[in-house]
Write a structure and sequence with these properties.
The protein has 622 residues and is an alpha+beta fold. The protein folds into 3 domains: 213 residues, 2-Layer Sandwich (Heat Shock Protein 90); 143 residues, Ribosomal Protein S5, domain 2; 134 residues, Four Helix Bundle (Hemerythrin (Met), subunit A). Helices cover 38% and strands 20% of the residues. The protein has 20 helices and 22 strands. The strands form 4 sheets. Strands 1-6-5-4-7-3-2-8-9 form a 9-stranded mixed beta sheet, covered by helices on one side. Strands 10-11-14-12-13 form a 5-stranded mixed beta sheet, sandwiched between helices. A hairpin with a 2-residue loop joins strand 12 and strand 13. Helix 1 packs across helix 4, helix 9 packs antiparallel against helix 10 and helix 16 packs across helix 18. The site of adenosine-5'-diphosphate has 16 residues, from helix 2.
Length: 622
């Protein structure tokens, strides 16, 4: 019968790639294989134990949850056994034959870009899990049986394929048998295994036992770290637990450990990583926290415990007031989870404030990695808007590159009479600094915040004001003349002089430009584009275009500098022939120039270069 069901199955291409990379690039971190396999075993037990809450039939036979390590020195094998949920044949194929997780492709590409070198941070972020066995083994056998199913055996050399056969398996659960490579024989030694378990898996709740001198010995202390008092936990223990939770190889930047008492009692252990994962801005990077109820593991990724803008956190919440036997779906709607989330948000924002004040360097590290995510809170969390706005850091026209300012700094340093806080959104600092919109602010010594995060576009308008001072973009709407004193006195006269010229310049641009007008906001440049208050900024337009969405056509305003010599020159041509083709050409050129100065792409670059070349020839042949 075993013969009949034998089947060889090819790994999916991405598994092959992953296996290849894992076996070749992670060599110096190969000892983590044990942590990964123990962690899978522990998860499988958690699953079975959770299912047994509602289906006690699962307890029959083996309710002494545990993980066992056994060594066969003669055959060079190390076996990791558990009495967890086991896998059906389909689950075996599904879970350890494919990579089901999204983002795999992106991950593999990043790894390849890194040249297949030792890249533990990347692999760590992704968590290679089971496949790490092939760092130490040249043959892996998995024997498993799920509740109510028959046993199945999976064998692979970690090359192109695996073999499935049915097999006898005494109880529910899984054995992973590693046929160790010659150079990994050290993992047959008791002291090596004991020290690995203590290093990486000490806090695993289920006993990890091993037969030592004919007696079973439990290798881990099994203490739930979050339930211990802070003073008892060693820094290394916090760090190892973090690595276990996050699969990150780096140390965490900050550990937050506290207990809440009162109407709702719970313990919280949270970590802020020191590096952002590569997929921080993908929807699926929001995992939530692990939820335990009275030490019993309930859910791996409980999203209700965190607002999305704190998705960079890893951690555990253990609540003693939640009922143990409810379904996860019902639990997700429990208002107590919202209550915990609120408490936790307040706590984390408090810790960040503290870091900002007392450990500015660490805070800066945090901010550079996760600032843009935290900013999303300005939009989504009105209750904490003020707190979050005080945590924001910005580049500004008054700071050196890289030295960041707060809104508080801005307000403290502005003139007493200044009413608004000014900002400019741009792709990066140097593009921002090149913007003609800054000219008048520079000439009047008014600070402008330079916002360069993609999220600024929608979160800053959501913030609206700070310390009762409205936040105003410098490139939208008219300037507030109580703050910015342009040459308004002369504007009337200039409008008279150039009125007819402006109309002639407008006609060829009608399709794209709502109005050509004179402006006092320019001191050096000839022209710039502005939009009406509340209109879309150039970055937002580009973002929508990049997402393949139709951007509603918004006509801009082309503003010209009346003091620029170009205007006088154009005026002369206009006086001779107000329908001159030169005016049409120049109108287009001014428009193109204004687009370029805000970092935009020209609708017809060829036309622009042709016209500029013509002009160059003309200028030289004068
Ligand atoms: P991860 O554990 O991060 O999901 P792995 O590659 O380590 O990734 O494991 C893939 C899947 O295989 C697991 O999610 C689980 O469903 C299944 N699995 C692995 N080991 C076991 C085990 N000991 N018992 C039951 N299922 C397991």
């Amino acid at each position: 019968m075993a013969e009949e069901s034998q089947e060889r199955i090819e790994f999916k291409t991405d598994v092959k790639q992953l296996l290849d990379l894992v076996t070749h690039s992670l060599y110096s971190h190969r000892e983590i294989f044990l942590r990964e396999l123990i962690s899978n075993a522990s998860d499988a037990i958690d699953k079975a134990r959770f299912a047994a809450l509602t289906d006690p039939a699962l307890l029959e036979g083996n309710a002494d949850w545990g993980i066992k390590l056994s060594v066969d020195k003669a055959n060079l094998t190390l076996t990791i056994s558990d009495n967890g949920c086991g896998m059906t044949r389909e689950e075996l194929i599904e879970h350890i034959g494919t990579i089901a997780r999204s983002g795999t492709k992106a991950f593999l590409e990043q790894l390849k870009k890194a040249g297949g070198k030792d890249q533990p941070e990347l692999i760590g972020q992704f968590g290679v899990g089971f496949y790490s066995s092939f760092m130490v083994a040249d043959l892996v056998t998995v024997r498993t049986r799920a509740h109510g199913s028959t046993g199945w055996q999976w064998v692979s050399e970690g090359q192109g394929s695996f073999e499935l056969t049915s097999c006898e398996h005494p109880g529910r659960g899984t054995d992973v048998v590693l046929h160790l490579k010659k150079e990994a024989e050290e993992y047959l030694e008791t002291h090596a295994l004991r020290s690995l378990v203590q290093k990486y898996s000490d806090f695993v709740e289920h006993p990890i036992s091993m037969e030592i001198e004919k007696k079973d010995e439990v290798l881990n202390s099994r203490q739930a770290l979050w339930l211990r008092s802070k003073s008892e936990v060693k820094p290394e223990e916090y760090q190892e637990f973090y690595k276990h939770l996050s699969h990150d190889f780096n140390e965490p930047l900050k550990t937050i450990h506290y207990g809440a008492e009162g109407t709702l009692e719970f313990k919280v252990l949270l970590y802020i990583p020191s590096k952002a994962p590569y997929d921080l801005f993908r929807k699926e990077s929001f995992k939530g926290l692990q939820l335990y109820i009275k030490r019993v593991f309930i859910m791996e990724e409980c999203k209700k415990l965190l607002p999305e803008y704190l998705r960079f956190l890893h951690g555990v919440v253990d609540c003693s007031d939640l009922p143990l036997n409810v379904s996860r779906e019902i639990l997700q709607d429990d208002p107590r989870l919202t209550q915990i989330q609120k408490n936790l948000t307040g706590k984390v924002l408090g810790v960040l404030k503290d870091m900002k004040e007392h450990e500015p360097e660490n805070y800066l590290k945090f901010y550079r990695e996760f600032g843009p995510v935290l900013k999303e809170g300005l939009h989504y969390d009105h209750g904490h808007k003020e707190q979050i706005s005080d945590l924001m850091l910005f580049e500004s026209t008054k700071s050196e590159a890289g030295a960041l300012r707060t809104l508080k700094d801005y307000v403290r340093d502005m003139r007493l009479a200044q009413k608004n806080i000014y900002y400019l959104i741009a792709e990066n600092r140097s593009k921002a600094l090149a913007s003609p919109h800054l000219e008048i602010f520079r000439s009047q010594d008014i600070e402008v915040l330079l916002l360069t995060d993609a999220v600024d576009e929608w979160v800053i308008p959501a913030l609206g004001e700070y310390d009762k001072k409205p936040l105003k973009p410098v490139n939208q709407g008219a300037l507030d003349d109580s703050d910015v004193k342009g040459d308004e006195g002369n504007l009337k006269q200039w409008n008279k002089t150039y009125g007819a010229l402006l109309k002639s310049l407008q006609t060829p641009l009608d399709e794209n430009i709502k109005e050509v007008r004179l402006s006092t906001r320019l001191t050096d440049s000839a022209c710039c584009l502005t939009s009406e208050t509340g209109g879309m900024t150039p970055q937002m337009e580009r973002m929508f275009q990049a997402m393949g969405q139709a951007v509603p056509k918004q006509k801009k305003i082309l503003e010209l500098n009346p003091k620029h010599p170009l205007l006088e020159a154009l005026q002369k041509i206009h006086a001779k022939d107000k329908e001159s083709a030169i005016l049409t050409d120049y109108a287009r050129l001014l428009y193109d120039q204004a687009i370029l100065s805000e970092g935009g792409a020209l609708p017809d670059a060829l036309h622009f270069t042709k016209k500029v070349s013509e002009l160059m020839v003309k200028a030289l042949s004068h």
